[in-house]
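chain below, 109 aa
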Amino acid sequence: MGKLEIEEIINKIIQMDQKAMESQQKFEKIKKENEKKLKETCRQMEEDIIQEARRTADNKYKEEIEKCNILVNSILEEGEQKIKRLNDSFEKIRQGLSESIFKEIFEID
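prediction:
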């Protein structure tokens, strides 16, 4: 083997080494880009999940408040009906007592 052949072999080895380094650098660059994209995707997914959870919670809150309002209105209405019945009963009793007292005072036979 001559000096020229050895230099050619060495040059080929150096070229292969350079290509391997370039390939490694490209791989690292692609890896970093993919990691960045993946992190951004994860961040966006997390944000979407949080927003959806807030919407769901807000809707559930509104539903529960509406149920409470319906219950409160029902209780108030029931209370008003009871008060009206009591007032009606009181008025009948009062009217009856007034007539009874009037008759006793002026006892007209």
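Helices lie at 3-105. The chain has a mean pLDDT of 92.
thats it, cya
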